[in-house]
Every structure is written in structure tokens, then in C-alpha cells.
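lol ok so funny story. i was supposed to be doing the assay writeup but got distracted and ended up predicting the structure for this chain instead. priorities right. anyway since i did it might as well share w the group, maybe its usefull for someone
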Amino acid sequence: MLHLRIVCPPERTEAVLGVLRAAAGATHLVLLPGAGLEPAGDVVEADVAREAADDVLAELCAMQLDHDGAITLETIDTSLSDAADRAEADAPGDGADAVVWEELIARTGEESRLTTTFQAFMTLACLLAAVGVVTDSPVTIVGAMVVGPEFGPLAAIAVGLVLRRWDLVRRAALAIGVGFPLAMLVTAGAAALGETGGLFDREVFNGAQHQVDFVYQVGPFSLIVALLAGAAGMLAMTSAKSAALVGVFISVTTVPAAGYAAVAAVLGDWGKALESSAQLAVNLLGIVVAAALVLWLRYRRNRFSSAGANGRPLAAG
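and the output, tada:
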């Protein structure tokens, strides 16, 4: 269940209540007249089954309440109520399969911003990957995969492409386009300092076979894994299965490839540096393509389901 709170002008309150009363899957309706201070208005609250939330939000946004008032949506962890059970039973579909498009746009929009925190995580992840490379430690490479924050912007690019939200695409592309090069530059500087300080030996690195060589060895399976990870990641983001994202982070070699490329460039192994860069590009492209395809399929399914139920297609936002 999701908790919905609406601040609306008093003259639209009855219309809002009508939408919620008519919606299959809405319950626990509460009206607080005049409780809204900024923006001013009445406060209407309700609990809505996840599978019914998107249609309710579409009708509320059509009333311009996102401009003239406020609409807030929160996840309810536990709801002990027979009314809530009936609402979930009445709502069409399954909550785990439902996509709340406004929630998805808000989530990916937030995670796609080039912020100091995003850049810090990206840089730390690349540094961890570099340590894994020079110490031949697959465990450290896996740690770098988990720390890397790159899936958020990649998912935002997919969402922006499918829903034609070019602001999301631009913002996410900026995060990726600046985040990776800057993190690689810092990593290269750290690698140069490490070699100068004797932390690792150039000849040993260039001449030996390593357990982490899979990072730069680009091939057909690089694309296959990226496609599978992108599909799984988008399914996790558009459903109630967000725990699956951890597996997505571990399965792709985006950050490790960036870290390997930086170290190899500093040590003069330009072949490995180029292969690592190719691995990075293949992973980024594969994730976006698969995520966009999964989202497009889910969008079409929801669009036609909504048209059949309400006589109107789902808006693209």
C-alpha cells in the first residue's frame, strides 16, 4: 500500500474526494478542512494499493493539483486493516508488477544528479577498483562494483528515452559524462603516487597474469551480462523488488573497467587501457539499451491496460 496526501484548493476538494471514492484500491479516506498552510487549502489523505496508484495520480495531476497544491506519495511498510485488504483485492493486477510512473520519474531524477556525493562515491569506487587491480583482489573489485553509483543515471537515461523526458536524459548524461572521467583522473593520480611510493611494481603488473584480468577482457559475454543486468535493474526499479539491485551492481564491470583503465594508462599498458575503456563503453551501452527495452515493454503494457480500463491511454508524463 501507498499513503497519498493531497493539499488542494477548497473548491476542488469534492472533486478530489470523488476521484478517491471511485478509485478501486483506495481506502482510509481522511479530510482535514483548511489544514494546509503553505500551500493553503484542504488536506486529503488516503491509502492506495500500488497497482491503483498510477491511475489516481494521473487524474489528480489532470486537475493541476501538482501545480496549485501538492501531492505526496509514501510507501506503507505495514497496514493492519480489513479495509486495506479489501482495497488491494479490488485493485486490478498485482502490486509487485505495478509501475507508479511518477514515483519512477522522481526516483531516477533524484539519483541522476551530478552532486558532490555522487562524485565522491564514483571516485571512491574507482579507487577501490584500482586497489583491486594492483593487488589482484577480486573481492576488492566486487566491493568497487557495489559502491559505484552509476546505475542511477543509467536508469534515468532509459526512463528519459522511453517517456521522452529529455531533461532526465541530459542530467543523467552529464552525471555519467563528468563522473567517470573525473573519477578516472583522480584514480590515475593516485596510481602514479602509488607507483612512485613503491606500493606496487610496474614490471610485475605488466608481465603477470592476474585473477582480475576479466575486467578488461571485452567479448560477447560482456554485452550479454550488461543486457541482463540492465533488464534486471529496471525490473527491480519498477517493482517492489528493489533488493535485486545489489545483484545488478555486482554483475557489471563498469567501475572496475574505469579503474583498470586508469591504472593501465599510468603504467603505460595502453592495450589494456583501451580494452578496459571498451569494456566500460559496452557495459554502459548494454545497460541503457536493456533497461530502456524493459521499460518500454512495461510502458506499453500499462498504457493499453489503462486504456482498456478507463477509455484513455496512459500519459507519458
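Residues 307-317 have pLDDT under 50 and may be disordered. The chain is about 65% helix and 10% strand.
back to the writeup now i swear
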